Amino acid sequence: MSLTLSSAKNIAQVLTQALPYIQKFTGSTMVVKYGGNAMLDESLKQSFARDIVLMKLVGINTIVVHGGGPQIASVLKRLNIESNFIDGLRVTDSQTMDVVEMVLGGLVNKEIVSLLNRNHGKAVGITGKDGKLITAKKLTIKKKGSKLNHEEIDIGQVGEVVSINTEILDVMKDSDFIPVIAPIGTDESGASYNINADAVAGELANVLGAEKLILLTNVAGVQDKQGNVLTGLSVKQVDQLIADKTLQGGMLPKIECALKAVKGGVHSAHIIDGRVEHAVLLEIFTDEGVGTLITKNGLDKN
């Protein structure tokens, strides 16, 4: 299809606006957490894949960490395995953990790899178990309302990150490969753990000294009590929003992950609307963006 002169000018304008950002971020590392609607809608899947491949093409070391909660739930239902949640975390017994590994490390991971490769990328799927990437430990949850500090709730093989070994990622960084990481880790004894994908992405961003941590969500971004999207926030402002309970519920874990990353040295964290086509590129390479930007002082757009 031939372009009209007007369409061609629009494309040229977009490329011109993107150029300074491309120049600024070439050679940097960005960690993208992929989940929500962007993983389920076909057009969003394609736009996400093109975004990631283009980022790699212009010299950004791009690392994808993915979730897969709905896919895990679907398989558990088909197998008649009941799902229970405590504080938003799936109780993961050994049977459920087998399904988690099969779905996250197999089905979902390889689907994303295939998606990126079909869009002319060179993606490689790994879990945190490969190359001893993620060492984990059992996540402990204190019993609410308990006066005894030692009273805990056992939620099975749900873990948290102890350490990251970047050796396998360093090898990929020096090539054209795009790592696609399933958030599964192991402890020193070899036991497997299901880890929150946001948390894994945040820890990776910290350890790698990433320029950006980008978390895709199913909302427009961080919102105030009136529902207005807050586009640029400092660490101090976010702390205040948590203190006055403007931020709570399902958004809180993402916010805390983003805060921890920025406090740990990541230049900026972005909570963006994954329901928007090409959300990642729009956030990185345009002046407007499509979500909430969190930086140490809240003044720097990028």
Mind telling me the CATH superfamily name? Acetylglutamate kinase-like
Rg over C-alpha atoms, rounded to the nearest angstrom:
20 Å
What share of residues are in beta strands? 15-25%
Portion of residues within helices: 25-40%
Distance between the termini: 35 Å
Q: What number is the mean pLDDT? A: 90
Q: What is the CATH top level name?
A: Alpha Beta
Q: Strand order within the widest sheet?
A: 5-10-2-1-13-15-16-14
Which characteristics define this entry?
about 300 residues, alpha/beta, Carbamate kinase, 8-stranded mixed beta sheet, 4-stranded mixed beta sheet, 9 helices, 16 strands, about 40% helix, globular
Describe the structure.
The structure is a single chain. By secondary structure, this protein is an alpha/beta fold. The protein has nine helices and 16 strands. It is 40% helix and 23% strand. The strands form four sheets. Strands 5-10-2-1-13-15-16-14 form an eight-stranded mixed β-sheet, sandwiched between helices. β1, α2 and β2 form a beta-alpha-beta unit. It is globular, with a radius of gyration of 20 Å. The chain starts with a helix and ends in a 7-residue tail after the last strand.
Brief write-up:
The chain is an alpha/beta fold and 302 residues long. 40% of the residues lie in helices and 23% in strands.
